[in-house]
């Protein structure tokens, strides 16, 4: 075995089955007697339900049941995370009386096959009375705007303001002030596997087992218990292989609850698998925030004040964490910079559209985009190099922990180091020379930077179990649930190192609430920091007990026992050694006095809200065709600091995945609604996703600033690509267009949009 497994690029154990098509996803499970669920959905953004005739559907072949809102009126609504000041309108399993968003469910059909259920759903006769609706949040805030929910006074879900210092004075007394409006387009999570649920009732009402493509099995179990009004300890949730989540599968959905309700009603398994269009229209979507920002500075470039106002589109129905991303944005509004006076306001607004919520980054990309666009605009205003303006205002390494004007404490960082490394890898001085030479020939070429911070881990506890079996093999159980992050490999690396055992002696289990301790889930770049830390603590406890057992066996003091490869020995006397198998057997059969049998520990690690703040610098070079408006990303450099790196190969994969989704946001993706809220981009013929051809040449690297918030010294990196890349490309695009006098253009940078901009500024 290697001296140190943590830090090595060990190939993921999970991948063999997945790349050979031997994975097991929710739709792969087909217990005998499975019924299939199809949903009847509203075609209107807002409407009164006049009547629903289910008789034709009930008479269709294979149909077992057809239900409407009246049949499930006693179920609880979809639970949400309770937050102060947030209005929470009803979110029933099937709509009763009215619908507030396109695709809202009004009836459910249960049949022997999926095709029969879909055919019968088309026979349900629902009559609606369309009502005035609204799709844009700023329009929804107008006094005379149609109400999304008639029972609410207005369409504002909440307003939250944070900050400190006299921002008004800072702006009034500044030598220079720049102002921009910066919009982030609404995006679809677009997991390869659409949402899927299979609910299996146990005989005699003894329980319910639910297979689901979820990111948080324990969270889903709690939500199902609340909505079904059924004992939580009678529900088992299993997350098998999950084909992507990106935040959108973190909470519960109506279909999850309906599957459970109908399974228990009929005593047969019930399965729901969303079609691609259903998944696009009804799974929570990301971003959709409009920021207005002001940045103040002295003549020498010292930043003195920053103010942002963020209007966020909540959609209609609140899901578990719909309200959170705009609030996350407030925490990191000042970015990497020492800005003494800062204020940030988030306004969540209801509209008659699909619900929004966490999507890879969840408020972080919008915050980085705002401050980084503003810093570039200030550099242009001052006639100052954008690199030097950043350097001048960075929080310095010796100033950590650093409390920002937003009241948030950054744990550690060295922002200048990542910036310098990115400039070196890019060949920045040469790039500037080449850009100017190409501009002289009439080309539209630009260079853009983004320096950023991103929080991770401060979203609750995580759990871990380490058990040394009597065979000397190790079983690891984590409350965290993997859906592509590489938990089975990384957690095995951590525990194998702590116990000094071969990594193939460690088995990692997850994703089943029956056999795992309560866990919070996998999202927000938190797994290594919290789940990994829990396993460190549990491993240390196992070692401490093992030393007592070995001391008894070797007739030595526990203080003289040390770990060696494959077992324990007396320090300085390597021949006095006992293997793990012997220690484990002894611990089970006759432990030391006062100790319980076995060699096992369970740990719950909680950062108490103290996030680890990763950081980095991304640099982009773009060119834009004058004739077509087509953007080409010619080079992309990403230098990230995620603290201590546990597995470089997995970190690289996380960064690559985030960059691919970021490039989709930058160049292609946007959910489009008509003025009423009707979705116009509900298929992959209408919603453009990134392909391999859109990914430019990439240069990736890392700097390392360990975090003091956890024993591994790690920081999250899963969202780094979506945080750092979009502002870098945005700044590069504006730099390319700056010779035309263009100040700002919002993403996505589609060819038709930029062609129009070029025409307007070339006249």
Give a brief description.
This protein has 763 residues and is α+β, with helices and mostly antiparallel strands. 29% of the residues lie in helices and 25% in strands.
Number of strands: 28
Beta-strand content estimate: 25-35%
The CATH superfamily of the largest domain is Aldehyde oxidase/xanthine dehydrogenase, molybdopterin binding domain
Number of domains: 3
Strand order of the largest sheet: 3-5-1-12-9-10-11
Low-pLDDT segments, ≥5 res: none
Residue-averaged pLDDT:
96
Helix content: 25-40%
Shape: globular
Give the tags.
Aldehyde Oxidoreductase, domain 3, Aldehyde Oxidoreductase, domain 4, single chain, 763 residues, 29% helix, alpha+beta, 19 helices, globular, seven-stranded mixed β-sheet, 28 strands, five-stranded mixed β-sheet
How does this model look, in words?
- The protein is built from 19 helices and 28 strands.
- With 763 residues, the chain is an alpha+beta fold.
- The chain has three domains: 15-20 and 459-605, Aldehyde oxidase/xanthine dehydrogenase, molybdopterin binding domain (Aldehyde Oxidoreductase, domain 4, 2-Layer Sandwich); 31-131 and 195-273, Aldehyde Oxidoreductase, domain 3 (Alpha-Beta Complex), CATH 3.90.1170; 363-456 and 611-762, 2-Layer Sandwich (Aldehyde Oxidoreductase, domain 4).
- A seven-stranded mixed sheet has the order 3-5-1-12-9-10-11, with helices on both faces. Strands 7-15-14-13-8 form a five-stranded mixed sheet. It has a four-stranded mixed sheet with strand order 18-26-27-28, with helices on both faces.
